[in-house]
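sorry to bug you again but im stuck and you know this stuff better than me. what follows is a protein written twice so to speak, once as letters and once as structure tokens for the fold. mainly i need to know what kind of three dimensional shape the backbone takes. anything you notice is useful, everything is just below:
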Amino acid sequence: MPNIKKLKSLGIAAAVAMAPLSASAGVDFGKPGEAVNLVIGYQPYYTESWTGVVNNGKSFWKNHLPAGSTAEFQVGLQGSVIVNAMAGEKQHIGYMGDMPAIASTFKYLPERGGTDIRIVAALGTSKQQCNIFLVRNDAPQFANGVDAVKWMDGKVTSAPHGACTDRFAQLAFKKAGIKPAKYLNQNIEVITTNFRAGKLDAAAIWEPTASKMVSAGIARRAASGEDFGAQDGAFMVMLNDLISQRPDAVMGWLEAELDAQEFVADPANADAIAAMAEAQTEKIDRSVLKASLYDSPMSGTTKLQLDFVISDDAKSLLRDATAFLYSLKKKPAAAPQIRPEGVMGQFAERVLEKRGLTTPVGRIVAK
């Protein structure tokens, strides 16, 4: 049993009581208070989860984990890559979009076991980070995003299916009352190639790829979730082995995440954040990376809301996105909703309370 006096001195006794024991301890993270060695999967190629980029670049985690602890950051080009690594217990903490975060919670089911992964915090929510429609450059000039999607009726469209882009595209088609001639399942590379070859009329894609394609003259931005009231988001997930064994490390990591979110929220840090993103990605110009977080044709809208805790907006997003995943033929979600213990927001709530802060921690308004 953990030393309760020690845990109280760290201010986490309540968190321990809220952390159910893992079905099976596949990784030994040591005892509370000891140095801990963590492997973090993160997505520098997904702007909405860039607090991982900042925590890697600024090493905020060193201020909050026990002395001698280590953190190895491993790049995942897509959230599904991180989920698979966590399912194999090769990574312990993951930064990812809403859809892979939800899918990760279904890697364990009471009736069949598996790797128990929990959602513990919201990295951010938005309506224009994953929810972006690009159109071919010779498309008409549209009065608004809804008209742009209506133009897609009978056209060749695309998105990475099963991702947040897929959820947005299908919602936009439904709200606009249209049906594309083709709605293809294509990754970013194929979408880029097909736009260049003139084989694609429109595609849904995420940041910073959207800004990169626009900057390169490959396609034009035409619509976003702002036009349809469609939310997107990014979340932090953790192995329940880590939560059960090391609530002190969980709290420490979330303290570092809060530092990162406050850093991102300060517009004075824009250039520093873009520089860190450039250093942790390949072949994306710093100006493009900066634009993906700060610029939008819809000036004055929220480009990123830094929720930190699982806010009401984040909860609503998780409910809707889980129902969408369950509706797909391959069913990445094995049930219409996440099991109650699959979302453990209490640790982040406690960290926020300790700091005397409220959600959202900050908001980036588009220029």
Residues 1-24 have pLDDT under 50 and may be disordered. The first strand starts at residue 37 and ends at 42. The chain has two domains: 4-125+232-365, 132-227. The chain is about 40% helix and 20% strand.
